Amino acid sequence: MVDVPGPRPARAVRLRPVGDGELELQYRVVHGYRRAFRMAGAGPALVLIHGIGDSSDTWAGLIPDLARTHTVIAPDLLGHGASDKPRADYSVAAYANGVRDLLTSLGIESATLVGHSLGGGVAMQFAYQFPERTERLILVSAGGVGREVNPVLRLVSLPGAHLVLSTLRLPGMRLQVGLAVRLMRLLDTDLGQDAPELLTLVDALPDETSRNAFIRTLRAVVDWRGQVVTMLDRCYLTEGMPTMLLWGDRDSVVPVRHAYGAHEAMPGSRLEIFEGAGHFPFHTDPARFVALVEEFTATTAPADWSRESWRELLRAGRPGTAAGQPDTARSRAVERDLREASERSAT
């Protein structure tokens, strides 16, 4: 078995300023499709993967600080932002392949992955498919843990979603959505915590091509019952890989209880809860978010992957599946989640 790397003294870093030009979108054609991304800074690679309907712009306010000590790469996933939006495979596994290919084209062999929401599922999938290229995992309000997800996303996964999303572009609809969102914020609802981001999502679907890509991506991970993919069945493979979970305690999209479930299932992981934050804790408290990322990358060693240790983990299997495991209430609760996860697709 692989030991979890322990803390080490913070390394001396040389801070460098980030020029405005570095934050502008750049483009690479991979497999014939244009991929947009932002790249700034110098040092160990740090890949920021956004959530569904979002883009690299969600990280724009954080990149200058993170790029003082890292080479930061923030892609627009295919079907999102300024990247192409073809009729394509928008599964989590396909996104992990796309991130690998973009990094390869940029000469990045390994990196710490920071994934938010859908991007958290992509980061976890990347670590599963390409463990030798994954140094650390930082999962932010990540999908793929439990079935629960906001009912609005379940609704949009149903037939007729194209029509529903099209109505958001009708004259006056943005104003009405804006008023509803502000009301939720005034009423101090959990969904209201992410009011600005909800309006941004509406603006991110200006045409039929964007809406089609959004729906294809959503249906790959959500149906009318909730999330349809899981990472719980193989979380034990992160043993030996420094992993940190960041979550808002008022997340109305992916409930905070998923954070505790993932923490339980990922050996040696670290959990940080942002009190009062919704689904975007890095927007609610960017200073704390940057500090945590910098401290985590500075005090943990990159994962030391080997084919032999990977083989041993696979042979040993998921903890709790063998005889002799303690039957605590917590273990039984986790096992229930794992049984529920087995009903969903494992990718």
TrEMBL record:
Record carries keyword Ion transport: no
Single GO MF annotation: hydrolase activity
AB hydrolase-1 domain ranges (all copies): 44-286
GO cellular component, one term: membrane
Residues that span the membrane, as ranges: none
Keywords from the UniProt entry: Hydrolase
Biased composition (Basic and acidic residues): 329-347
Gene3D superfamilies (alphabetical): alpha/beta hydrolase
UniProt region (Disordered), positions on chain: 316-347
Pfam families from the UniProt entry: Abhydrolase_1
InterPro entries with a match to the protein in the record: AB_hydrolase_1, AB_hydrolase_fold, AB_hydrolase_sf
Protein name per UniProt: Alpha/beta fold hydrolase
Organism expressing this protein natively: Streptomyces cyaneochromogenes
